[in-house]
Design goal:
This protein is an alpha/beta fold. The protein has a single domain (12-151), classed as Glutaredoxin (3-Layer(aba) Sandwich). It is 29% helix and 29% strand. The strands form three sheets. The chain has a five-stranded mixed beta sheet. The chain has a two-stranded antiparallel sheet with strand order 1-2. Strand 6 and strand 7 form a beta hairpin. It is globular. The chain starts with 11 loop residues before the first strand and ends with a helix.
Amino acid sequence: MVEVGDKAPNFSLPTDAGDTVTLKDFKGQALILYFYPKDDTPGCTKEAIGFSEDLAKFKKAGATVLGVSKDSVEKHAKFRAKHDLAVALGSDEEGAVVEDYGVWVEKNMYGKKYMGIERATFLIDGKGVVREIWRKVKVPGHVEKVLEAVKGL
């Protein structure tokens, strides 16, 4: 389980833009790494739109935003186009990154247990150290909280 103060686990993820991103790509700048369960579901859509709408504010504060789910690059591209998203979306189809960050968890819906991605956000500084973690994220107001934390780095 990743904790505040830990070195962020490295990753290499294909994105909907057709490239591959790694943790090293963000050296010298803050990274907002947010994990979400599934493309084009209500909460995930609101969260992605929220980060997209404030992307210029994050950039001004010296941060980049990367969303990650287990959806394919193709699904990410459709999701991004449908909602005119500005944030990059990384595909973790194999599940290695969600495991490394401890967000692949047992969930319970209507008494049915299943494995899925916990909505969580990690603020990683320019040296690759985890500075803040939000787990079991509730979407309303979340983007604003993350932006304030970035400004406080």
